[in-house]
């Protein structure tokens, strides 16, 4: 019995499952209308996977860096630390913490998606769209028709507007 065993195996080993959800998530984020068609069990699992990615992206602080703020000390070609130019200043501890937090969350999502351009789209376009929404960023709709080859029931996974 599968008591307290969350998630579906989908007749795949763990690395195959990870690759499957990574590819489905990429397809969903790259689609123009924000929707893809897949089987119902895959769609239900993908919804939770996408919701966790979007929630992680929402946690990232929005960071607007003023002109002349440096996060690292300037160095010359020999690696020696040089003084700051006029108008430059080092970032405050609060700015450094926000910068580090944002980069940490981006790396966490990059670990799952493996595509820097897609991570940038997720953080800059998709996550701000759901700033006021507490969850439920995806919708799974069952389709009436079945797949022609094997008769499997299909579903549409879409990002909620």
How does this structure look, described?
This protein has 161 residues and is α+β, with helices and mostly antiparallel strands. It has a single domain (14-159), classed as Alpha-Beta Complex (50s Ribosomal Protein L17, Chain: A), CATH 3.90.1030.10. Helix content is 45%, strand content 16%. The chain is built from 4 helices and 5 strands. Strands 1-5-4 form a 3-stranded antiparallel beta sheet, covered by helices on one side. It has a two-stranded parallel sheet with strand order 2-3. Helix 3 (93-113) packs across helix 4. It is elongated. The mean pLDDT is 95.
Order of helices and strands: HEHEEHHEE
| Beta strand count | 5
According to CATH, the homologous superfamily is Ribosomal protein L17
> What gap, in angstroms, lies between the N and C termini?
39 Å
The CATH architecture classification is Alpha-Beta Complex
What are the low-pLDDT stretches, counting only 5+ consecutive residues below 50?
none
The neighbouring-strand order within the major sheet is 1-5-4
Count of DSSP helices? 4
- Category from helices, strands and their pairing: alpha+beta
Quickly name the level 1 CATH class: Alpha Beta
Q: Roughly what is the average pLDDT, rounded to an integer?
A: 95
- Percent range for helical residues? 40-55%
CATH topology assignment? 50s Ribosomal Protein L17, Chain: A
Give the overall shape, derived from the CA principal axes: elongated
Beta-sheet strand percentage? Answer: 15-25%
Largest sheet: 3 strands, antiparallel
């Amino acid at each position: 019995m599968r008591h307290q065993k969350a998630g579906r195996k989908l007749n795949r080993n763990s690395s195959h499952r990870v690759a499957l959800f990574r590819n489905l998530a990429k397809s969903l984020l790259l689609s123009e209308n924000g929707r893809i068609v897949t089987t119902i069990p895959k769609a239900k699992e993908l919804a939770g996977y996408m919701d966790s990615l979007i929630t992680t992206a929402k946690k990232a602080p929005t960071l607007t860096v003023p002109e002349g703020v440096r996060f690292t000390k300037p160095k010359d070609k020999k690696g020696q630390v040089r003084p700051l130019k006029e108008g430059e200043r080092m970032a405050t501890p609060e700015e450094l913490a926000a910068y580090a937090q944002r980069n940490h969350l981006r790396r966490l999502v990059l670990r799952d998606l493996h595509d820097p351009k897609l991570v940038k789209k997720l953080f800059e376009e998709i996550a701000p769209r759901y700033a006021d929404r507490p969850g439920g960023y995806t919708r799974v709709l069952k389709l009436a028709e079945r797949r022609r080859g094997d008769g499997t029931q299909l579903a549409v996974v879409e990002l909620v507007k």
